[in-house]
# Entry
Amino acid sequence: MTMPTATFRSINPQTATAFGPEFVESSKEEVEKKILAAHAIRREFADLEPKRRAALLREIADAIESRREKLVAIAPLETGLPVARITSEVTRTVVQIRAFATMVETGIHYNATIDLPDPDFQPAPRPDIRKFNQSLGVVAIFAASNFPLAFSVMGGDSASALAAGCPVIVKAHPSHPQTSEIVFQAVQSALRSLGLPGEIFSIAHGQNPELTHWLATADHVTAIGFTGSGLVGKLLVKLASERKVPIPVFAEMGSLNPVFITTNAITERASAIAKGAAESVLMGSGQFCTKPGLFFIPSDSTGDVFIAEFTIQLSQSQAAPLLNPGIRDRYKKSMAELESAPVISVLHGLPGSDTGLSVQPAVIVVNAEEFARMPQLSEEHFGPTSVIVRASVASYSAIAASIEGQLTTTIHAGADEQDDLSKLISELAQISGRVIWNGFPTGVAVTAAMNHGGPWPASSTNTTSVGIDATYRFLRPVSYQGFPDAYLPPALQASNPWKIERVTNGVRG
Amino acid sequence: MTMPTATFRSINPQTATAFGPEFVESSKEEVEKKILAAHAIRREFADLEPKRRAALLREIADAIESRREKLVAIAPLETGLPVARITSEVTRTVVQIRAFATMVETGIHYNATIDLPDPDFQPAPRPDIRKFNQSLGVVAIFAASNFPLAFSVMGGDSASALAAGCPVIVKAHPSHPQTSEIVFQAVQSALRSLGLPGEIFSIAHGQNPELTHWLATADHVTAIGFTGSGLVGKLLVKLASERKVPIPVFAEMGSLNPVFITTNAITERASAIAKGAAESVLMGSGQFCTKPGLFFIPSDSTGDVFIAEFTIQLSQSQAAPLLNPGIRDRYKKSMAELESAPVISVLHGLPGSDTGLSVQPAVIVVNAEEFARMPQLSEEHFGPTSVIVRASVASYSAIAASIEGQLTTTIHAGADEQDDLSKLISELAQISGRVIWNGFPTGVAVTAAMNHGGPWPASSTNTTSVGIDATYRFLRPVSYQGFPDAYLPPALQASNPWKIERVTNGVRG
# Structure
């Protein structure tokens, strides 16, 4: 008996209707075959000269860039995100791939370290020891729904795994299969241009939840990269820890990204902060993992001023579609629950069109006591909502100390700030991976100094999926002791044939 | 009703008798109090200027050095290890602490990275972003029995945690409480000399297995360092993963450290290899995590030559005491099981004195088929034993590919080697953390290029507990975005007040 082949199609969030081609659900056998094929060529890919790996990354960036028009035509239809956002995200995606290419060329990620023999070393003479970072092997990447390019098929997680020399199998997000397939084909065309095996990069499509299990438990998968929800992230951590050979899961999950606003900040620029805050909450229909989901504002009269300004901003905001029916349903359910709770008030945006997957922005305002009493306010709510808590500025650092791990935290202070914020800043650095001053957490610049991950439950490890340091997640050190030069990997040979950055006897060069 | 206080004493492995002062088992309340006190001063310690932290490490090294006589008097009595070994281990311990001091001064471990604002950055202008590594908080270290100094109270794990700016609580190994207490007092005197709080470094004594649970599940413990057995390592991983807030466990566990010897190597220098092999197996009564527990030698006549030479070496070896009754009992049990199995032969050392915890060296010889059939030969056996497997040299790389993760692997080849060993070397680099050429895995040089950890089950993470890179295990990156200089941590301030190594806009300086 042949099982019927399951298929699915894109859904347009503006209309909640299916469109475009049928996508066939990947079967367990197909997934296993792709992983096995990727495993078979892992050494060939790992041993690739840095220049060629950098060339591959640049070729991939170019191939995506050359499909910009197609992507800008299809991705907004699959995600409900505006054209301008997709345009910007294509740019971010290619910029970040090229940043990895530049790093790969320097070879700094190999952390090549050479200690020459030392007969006087204590307590015993030291042999020749050379260490460098090696690729882990096949990496499974789980694409995010909310960044259909920058954290999807060839987003930051995939780019960093390829930079590390690991073959990648991506679980495409079923909310944007057409966008996913265009990007996948771009990567395949780049591999062909460089004469490299297509098995380096494969894709699995599907809505079947089993797909996640197959990938996370497959024998030859050596690490998992995921930037998305806490629910899926925690499932991946559990599946990976139960394997016969556990593997690392680099999951960067949801976060409330609390923002603390001082009295002076509001006195100086209430309107500008309220405008920035509302924009940050509503950007991408509130579907950013760095969305500010929690504002602490003074309980005094400046807090009233801020709420008045914020209400003006919100009252001009439109209802907008969410990414998929699941996100829409969860948003509606949690907002109904929150709105029925005894909170002081709910600020609403414009109802706008109620078609498709559109929902109305709604922001909850509570006081500190209610916030402490209602644990559901400390949960992430994906969508155009946030919670404003009125508290005394003097209590901010104690509140910060009681908050669980976050991707980001933010302070808005006055130019002529009266309060000493050192204690608050210190607490925020302890609970988050990025602390922002007089800014907003959305809009993550992909740069060397950027850190995206934060303490549990914001992330599963102390690493970052954004920025070039993401590469180190997929590497492990191996030392070679007393080896003849000819048998050493090129990264460690005396002549430094790859011309990479190395440290020899403590001296970088 | 007051519970009777449990106590325990050192046991001399030479005589299997208790001696010295009574040690009181730490209670759960004491452990919690120490962790809470360490947590309370964690920021003070984390914020310490690198120069002062380096000075502390050097003061600790000096304080241990100044107790060398006491340590050399007591540690051999508690461990059964020879005086020369303890003398050398004191040296290794202070050398490695000083290596961490040198690294701390450069500040390289902060990985301070500064990206200045860039209005032309794509897809959006970039704000000022600065990142550096921050201390995790209180670290629990579980001391090893087999390195009473170098991986005990102030061994590599503790030194790297202090270098990272983390307060440490050590679970002392109950096999050497007196040695542990001398080292603990050395650290305390160094803290006093520098006017630093004693809470930075605390110790828990006990044989009670609950002690491990209390430490691994305590709220304010943020990471665990352990270099020891697979049994304890896997327990720690499990306990840490079940916490409400999971924490990283850096466990470097047992290993078989397989050695592959070619025909040419034996033809050229059978006697020298056999001598080195026997010394490496018997060093410290075979109680090294890097002990070669598995030798692959040719099935041809050169294999006979090697066994003859190895038999001569072994026949001159003495019975020697094991570290504690538990290790002795497990050794006797597993050897009795192995010797009763249908193996081709067992080579024995001299029976010697049967007093105390002494056991006789015994090496098992099997062929490749028997090895494949007997999974118990692929388990680590702590003590003066090893397994020699006769196989065809042509099959070595296939055998290597079938072996699970190891701390080390070793090749002995001829100067005029006939076989191409590239494939074997590539396989060994994939299953281990250090590959050794014409040497032996015991005797780990503590140097920048050294790597100790290996793939699961040799280690729980892709990190090393030996060498200065161990520091990175106890740090996590935090970014500061758009901050005024005065509120930035010193590591990121414009004037670089700590004079540490930083990378600004991609340029190191």
Residues 28-253+462-503 of chain B form a domain with the Aldehyde Dehydrogenase; Chain A, domain 1 fold (CATH 3.40.605.10).
